[in-house]
Write a structure and sequence with these properties.
The complex is a heterodimer of chains A (711) and B (68). By secondary structure, chain A is an alpha+beta fold. Among the domains of chain A are: 91 residues, Alpha-Beta Plaits (2-Layer Sandwich); 86 residues, Calcium-transporting ATPase, cytoplasmic transduction domain A, CATH 2.70.150; 96 residues, Calcium-transporting ATPase, cytoplasmic domain N (3-Layer(aba) Sandwich), CATH 3.40.1110. Chain A is built from 25 helices and 27 strands. Chain A has a 7-stranded mixed sheet, sandwiched between helices. A 6-stranded antiparallel sheet of chain A has the order 7-6-8-14-9-12. Helix content of chain B is 43%, strand content 0%. The chains are: A alpha+beta (711), B mainly alpha (68).
Chain lengths: 711, 68
């Protein structure tokens, strides 16, 4: 069942009030805006299409058409003909509440430019013969611009600051708000009493520079969440619902209600938790348990959503739709783990925790010294306190992190790595242990016969195996393709027998008496001559697995294999890859406690449901592109493809980013060490403050450009 | 010097008009997809039978194309 089946499409089509139908898709394989235009052009030429619009930034296509004239399949086929792949995409109905920061940024930019222009007139007037009247007029004009601008654009900081203060926390926003509002108030007071120095320009440009950082930050987050949603759309499935009159229809998984019956053909995933009503079938639960070998489910037994039906179509009565019981357990564990991790991981946050009180403390100290000890007037002391606050305010620090991360995340995106948020990249740069899941992550989740067994034997055995749908037989045929032999009979659950007396199956069926029961999945083969061979199977490593493990070791990261599969299978696999530390038969709970008990910062790499809680609990987490939804939701970083190789490059970039962020923060701290004494001494004029603030911000931005140039 | 009394406000009004134009362009989703627009000039095909704007999040479909 692919999403390209005509009937499956119907599950994603929405009917609009005006009778037209619409469909949202993600488009795979699009490179640039020209691709977007050619898709639009091709589709809009089809009769009956009302609207075809491709967003080249989000890689999404929206179609509106007249359902009486054209079928959506025709439209998607037109996309395929152009060499792209369109995947229907059900909107989850969530609305983005995110504020668009471009407007505040533009307003702050407008204010900064104009006030700066006026300020230059005032500064040159201070050394020439400008009269007090003219100066006050220019000051008043600045005030008229600065007040609405800082109140509107600055609200981006005031609102979270108020929330933080109410919760008793000190954040960067609190320090910024305090500085901006105090500067504004003091400058207003100076304007009214015709003073010489005002700092409206500083207050407005502070808001402007910090907003640049926020806009970068927001653009990143939006782009990353978009990409991970698109990735999920590729795997979005529908279910086949059987109606009472025996008909079948395709519906989205959300539309299922408990009590309904769904049909799951072999090779597809079960859409909801339920009870098996048709005859017993083999079900692959590797996503849930990490076990490679499918399990035989009897009629009337429970099956879990996400498991793969292996041999015959299953009719399942839905018991829990939507959030399933076992899935819900795992989701609960996941949210608990994420809540426990806390948010204080970001370098910039740690910096601010010390910094916020420092800004306010330094300003207060300056004020107290000048007012009580040096004995200057109240207004002069206030202006010195304001000057201190302006230079200490974390302008460079606010840009330090987003400037680096925006560049890093764009670089990684081009290499097929989606970083969900900037913090994840900072954390990835700090890890020293990598806990890696086996099934589906390092392995292909597909068994293959042990390569040490004589190939002629395997080839002969494969001829028998071709007549069976048993997973081990299928694995054998996959490795050694063979045609069906008409003289082979299958005895279900026991084995296969050919007319020449060669047999394939369990030890008992083949007629071997042995105490040497091997670990892990195996078959016995007896040739026509009566020679019995044991065929053991192992989980096949992904082609890149060796390189990934070697790359981790080369980066001083210790790989540890943690798997829910049988210990014997895990041991052999770990030995093949040269991983000295491995753990088998781990439940999701055991995985989470392993990750938590690690003495060092741990990276969790996994794809299954059983990995999701550990992904949430780990310091940083990565999922390959083939992962389950739950794992993709839990992980910080996603690969767009199946290979884990891009992870190595991501670690390098993360480490370099972390270093650059640290440099930027050190620079911001150093800048304060130099400027605060000047401000405290009363030597900071508005002109010097403006120069210092701009140059420090630009330096930090330039430093971020170094990312990726050397490593 | 009295010239600045009206020249400065005039310059502010002109700048303000540009600001308003920018805000309008943001509000009408012209910044939602910068990737595609730069190729539009190369497109020879006549404009589509609809020039509606839309966003994929469905939050601001103000042209009657409703999303659930």
């Amino acid at each position: 069942m692919t999403t390209r089946d005509a009937t499956v499409l119907d599950a994603f089509v929405r009917t609009n009030p005006d009778g037209s139908a619409s469909l949202n898709c993600t488009v795979d394989g699009m490179r640039c805006g020209a691709c977007a235009l050619s898709i639009e052009h091709a589709i809009s030429n089809i009769n009956g299409v009302l609207q075809a619009r491709v967003n080249a930034t989000t890689h999404r296509l929206r179609l509106v058409w007249n359902p009486e004239t054209v079928h959506p399949k025709r439209l998607l086929d037109a996309v395929t003909e152009l060499g792209f792949e369109a995947h229907p995409f059900a909107m989850e109905g969530k609305q983005t509440t995110e504020q668009n920061l471009l407007v505040p940024l533009a307003v702050a930019g407008f204010g900064t430019m104009n006030i700066m222009a006026i300020s230059f007139a005032v500064w040159s007037g201070l050394v020439t013969d400008m009269g007090v009247g003219t100066r006050t007029f220019l000051h008043a004009l600045s005030a008229v611009i600065a007040l609405p601008v800082t109140l509107y654009a600055g609200a981006v900081f005031y609102v979270p600051a108020a929330r933080a203060l109410r919760a008793g926390r000190m954040t960067m926003d609190v320090a910024i708000s305090f500085a901006v509002l105090t500067t504004l108030a003091a400058s207003l007071y100076e304007t009214i009493r015709h003073g010489a120095h005002i700092y409206f320009d500083a207050a407005v440009s502070l808001v402007f520079f910090l907003l640049i950082g926020r806009v970068l930050d927001q653009a990143l987050r939006r782009r990353a969440s978009n990409a991970s949603e698109n990735l999920r759309a590729l795997g979005q499935t529908s279910a086949i619902r059987l109606t009472d009159d025996g008909k079948s229809e395709h519906v989205t998984v959300d539309a299922l209600v408990s009590g309904e019956t769904i049909l799951t053909p072999p090779g597809t995933r079960i859409a909801a938790d339920g009870v098996l009503r048709s005859e017993s079938t083999l079900v692959d639960e590797s996503f849930l348990t990490g076990e490679t070998l499918p399990r035989l489910v009897e009629t009337g037994a429970r099956v879990t959503a996400g498991s793969l039906v292996v041999d015959i179509a299953a009719r399942i009565e839905v018991t829990t739709a939507g959030t399933a019981t076992r899935l819900q357990d795992i989701a609960d564990m996941l949210s608990a783990a994420e809540a426990a991790k806390g948010e204080d991981q970001r370098l910039a946050d740690r910096f601010t925790r010390a910094y916020g009180p420092f800004v306010i403390g330094a300003a207060l100290a300056g004020f107290m010294f000048w007012y009580t000890i040096a004995g200057v007037s109240l207004s002069e002391a206030i202006m010195i306190a304001v000057a201190v606050m302006i230079v200490t305010c974390p302008c460079a620090a606010g840009l330090a992190t987003p400037a680096v991360l925006s560049r890093a995340i764009n670089m990684l995106m081009a290499r097929g790595v989606i970083v969900k948020n900037g913090d994840a990249l900072e954390r990835l740069g700090a890890i020293s242990i990598a806990a890696i899941d086996k099934t589906g992550t390092l392995s292909n989740a597909r068994l293959s016969p042990d390569s040490r067994i004589e190939p002629t034997v395997l080839r002969a055995a494969s001829e028998l195996a071709a007549n069976s749908t048993h997973p081990l037989a299928k694995a054998l045929v996959h490795a050694y393709p063979a045609g069906v032999r008409p003289d082979v009979k299958e005895q279900v659950g026991r084995g296969l027998a050919a007319s020449d007396e060669s047999r394939l199956g369990s030890a008992k069926f083949v007629g071997v008496e042995t105490d040497d029961t091997p670990s892990g999945p195996h078959l016995w083969y007896r040739s026509a001559e009566g020679v019995a061979t044991q065929i053991t199977f192992r989980d096949e490593a992904h082609p890149d697995a060796h390189q990934v493990v070697a790359g981790l070791v080369a980066r001083q990261i210790k790989p540890v294999l943690i798997s829910g599969d049988h210990p014997e299978v895990v041991e052999g696999f770990a030995r093949d890859l040269g991983i000295p530390d491995w753990f088998g038969a781990l439940s999701p709970e055991a995985k989470i406690s392993f990750v938590k008990s690690c003495p060092h910062k741990t990276l969790m790499v996994g794809d299954g449901l059983n990995d999701a809680p550990a992904l949430g609990a780990a310091h940083a987490s990565v999922s390959p592109g083939s992962s389950t939804d739950v794992a993709q939701n839990a992980a910080d970083i996603l690969m767009t493809g199946r290979s884990l190789l891009p992870l190595l490059g991501a670690i390098d970039i993360a480490r370099q980013s972390r270093q650059l962020i640290k440099q930027n923060l050190y620079f911001a701290a150093f800048y304060n060490v130099v400027t605060i004494p000047v401000a405290l001494a009363g030597g900071l004029t508005p002109l010097v403050a403006a120069l210092l603030m701009s140059s420090s911000s630009i330096l930090v931005m330039l430093n971020a450009r170094r990312l990726g140039t050397s490593s | 010097m009295t010239a600045i009394l009206y020249l400065l406000p005039i310059s502010l009004v002109l700048g303000g008009l540009a600001l308003i134009a920018f805000i309008w362009s943001v509000r009408t989703h012209q910044y939602d997809d910068l990737e595609r627009e730069k190729y539009r000039v190369l497109n020879d095909a006549p404009p589509l039978n609809s020039n509606r704007t839309w966003t994929t999040d469905g939050a601001s479909d103000r042209d009657g194309v409703e999303e659930e």
